[in-house]
Structure formats: C-alpha cells, structure tokens
Design goal:
Two copies of one chain form a homodimer. With 111 residues, the first copy, chain A, is mainly β. Chain A has one helix and seven strands. In chain A, the strands form two sheets. In chain A, strands 2-1-6-5 form a four-stranded mixed beta sheet. Chain A is globular. Chain A starts with 11 loop residues before the first strand and ends in a 9-residue tail after the last strand. The interface between A and B is large, with 42 and 42 residues. Strand 5 of chain A pairs antiparallel with strand 7 of chain B, so a sheet runs across the interface.
Chain lengths: 111, 111
Amino acid sequence: MRNLKFDEKGLIPAIAQDDDTGEVLMLGYMNEEALRRTLSSGEVWFYSRSRQELWHKGKTSGSRLKVRLVWKDCDSDTILVKAHPTGPVCHTGNETCFFQQLTKQDVEVSP
Amino acid sequence: MRNLKFDEKGLIPAIAQDDDTGEVLMLGYMNEEALRRTLSSGEVWFYSRSRQELWHKGKTSGSRLKVRLVWKDCDSDTILVKAHPTGPVCHTGNETCFFQQLTKQDVEVSP
C-alpha cells in the first residue's frame, strides 16, 4: 500500500475520533484490507488482534463509525479516522473507550 | 504498573490530544518510566522506538506538551493524554502530525 508503514504483524494503529465533538473514541488496528474497506465503504473496519479477523465495527452492537475523513501521520505509521458514531463506541456502553482517568497513584512503585 | 497492559516490548500507545482545540496531535509510545514521568512531571514523556530511549517531548524543539488529563481505555492498553502544546508538535513544523489525507486512491491495488 502506497506510503504506509504497517508493523511486523501487518497492522497499523488507527485512532477513531468523533468528527462532531472532537472526542477521541478508541484506538483500533487495521491491516491493509481493513483500511481498504474503511476507505471504500464509508464505515470503519478494524482487524481484531484477539479474534484475528477483520472486524466491521458495530456489526454486532449496531454502533458503527461513519467515515468523514481519514488521515495518516507524518511518519505514515498511524491512521486517524474522523467519523460519526451511530451509537456508543465502547463495548461497556460508554460513548468513548477513554472513561477512566489515570493519576500519579496509578503509577507509584509498589513497596 | 497497576491495571495497565504494556505490549511484549514493554510499550503502550499514547495518543496526544490538544485539550483546548480537540485536535489529535500525535501517537507516541510510552514505557512504564515514560508514563510515570508524564504523570509526575506534568509534561509528556515518550519512549522513542527508533532511538530506544526515553524522550522528553519538546526537549530539543521546545514544543512541549503540558499535561492536563490522562486517561486509559477500557482494555487498559491505550493511553490518551489531553495536553496543551507549547508549540508545533510535529517535527515538520505542523501543529499536528496528521496533516496528510488518505483517499481511496491511496489503497488501490497496484496493477
């Protein structure tokens, strides 16, 4: 694929952002085919590392990500998809997967 | 580190977002020490995979990322840092590393 760097597993991280609110929704991984489908279908596809298969985001939950714009970063090793979510993106039911805050206490070295 | 999943290389991807504009600025990687320093110092640290060393973002360029809030995702394998950039984040001089759009043409299979 032109000018894109997939890692040794053939994957590239893809950030999904709500194009209306600016909220960062999740980070997934795409292989070439997932990216191709994302750009051609208008809905986000990932590659599930746990299930090792293509994953049409929202196929089961109904919460799909409608693609608005897709970007690559300066190093061509990260994707940013600005999208419109049709429902809660997170499997927990939250609108975003980032709902748990980290603080200093979380990284203190255990005694 | 409590409840965080680092990969087999001891790294976790970390999205940096401009807390004021909502713009996604870059994706970097942190090891435990980079995350610890990020949370304790108030400025973003990454681990540079190419240089294989801790990387105080902006130490050379002057464009630092002042930490506002840090989140982990539902799977505890991605970090989101909402920050205030003190200058252009990208080494190209752009405010964000995501300034190149991808289209269908970029993923067409070569003949």
